[in-house]
Specification:
Elements: E1 12-14, E2 17-19, E3 24-27, E4 31-36, E5 39-44, E6 69-71, E7 74-76, E8 81-82, E9 91-95, E10 98-102, E11 110-111, E12 123-124, E13 127-129, E14 132-134, E15 139-142, E16 145-153, E17 156-161, E18 174-175, E19 184-185, E20 193-195, E21 202-204, E22 208-209, E23 216-220, E24 226-230, E25 254-257, E26 260-263, E27 267-269, E28 277-279
Parallel strand pairs: 11-12
Antiparallel strand pairs: 1-2, 3-4, 4-5, 6-7, 8-9, 9-10, 13-14, 15-16, 16-17, 18-19, 20-21, 22-23, 23-24, 25-26, 27-28
Length: 283
């Protein structure tokens, strides 16, 4: 009997493109497809992660990359050696997507002072002073003496006096108040009055006087200073009466006639004509 050949596997058509039987290809969305028996079978691509710190999926790829490391949000190249941001002299290395860190071992015990550059963290020695124990860096005052400040530095106590400001007053005006560490200036005594240098007369506070000009008045103020002010005469009249010791002329006292002063409504004879009688009328 003649031999018959097995029928060949059919092709697959996917989105208008022919696919040979048994072929595999990748579609968008990380889907793996294959042509089997004339049918296209697709499934989501599984990504087994074989490292502890893989790099994010590159553009166009589906699975994370273990050829580098992603540590604390920073991408590290293969074989990169680095120190973490919060590590105390810790050294890390990136190998095949895995990050391995090594921290140095420090012997226990105390150290003279705390140094940020020291890889080994240690506790500075405490201070024992006058029956009390103080931690490193502690500040305190001596018993009964608030003017002295002490500090514990690596097992040793250093004390110093409180700094005092420079005073701008004479030494006889400086005094030390009870409970205070520094001298202060006394308040100057309140003035008892105003002393006039021109005539040597001292006026009490609140005294008002005229220095010689009747239009000027002065007053002795509470701080010992003298304040003076002139008087402005605003009233005018055609026949003013100037009274000695008075600042402004008097317009209501009467009239001035030929060097004489007459009161209001007063009559007097005319100097030019004895038959004429004059009267003072204040308007």
């Amino acid at each position: 009997a003649p031999r018959t050949s097995a029928p060949s596997a059919p092709r697959c058509w996917y989105r208008g493109v022919p696919r040979e039987p048994g072929t595999r290809w990748m579609e968008l969305g990380c889907r793996s497809c294959a042509c089997q028996g004339g049918q296209v079978l697709c499934e989501a691509t599984s990504c087994p992660v074989t490292c502890s710190h893989p790099l994010p999926t590159p553009a166009g790829g589906c699975c994370p990359n273990c050829s580098g490391c992603l540590h604390e949000g920073v991408a590290r190249a293969e074989g990169d050696v680095f120190s973490p941001s919060d590590g105390n002299c810790t050294v890390c290395v990136c190998l095949a997507g895995n990050v391995s860190c090594i921290t140095p071992e420090c012997p226990p015990g105390s150290c003279p002072s705390a140094s940020p550059a020291d890889c080994c963290s240690c506790q500075p020695a405490k201070c024992s002073f006058q029956g009390h124990t103080y931690a490193h860096g502690a500040r305190f005052s001596l018993d009964g003496d608030d003017c002295t400040t002490c500090i514990c530095q690596g097992g040793e106590v250093e004390c110093s006096f409180a700094p005092c400001p420079m005073l701008d007053c004479p030494q006889h005006q400086q005094h030390l108040s009870p409970g205070q560490c520094c001298f202060t200036c006394r308040e100057p005594p309140a003035p008892a009055g105003c002393f006039m240098d021109d005539n040597g007369v001292e006026f009490p506070i609140g005294q008002i006087w005229s220095p010689g000009d009747p239009c000027e008045l002065c007053i002795c103020q509470a701080d010992g200073s003298v304040s003076c002010k002139r008087t402005d005469c605003v009233e005018t009249c055609p026949y003013p009466i100037h009274t000695p010791g008075q600042c402004c002329p008097d317009c209501s006292a009467g009239c001035t006639y030929m060097g004489r002063i007459f009161y209001n409504n007063e009559t007097f004879p005319s100097v030019l004509d004895p038959c004429l009688s004059c009267i003072c009328l204040v308007r």
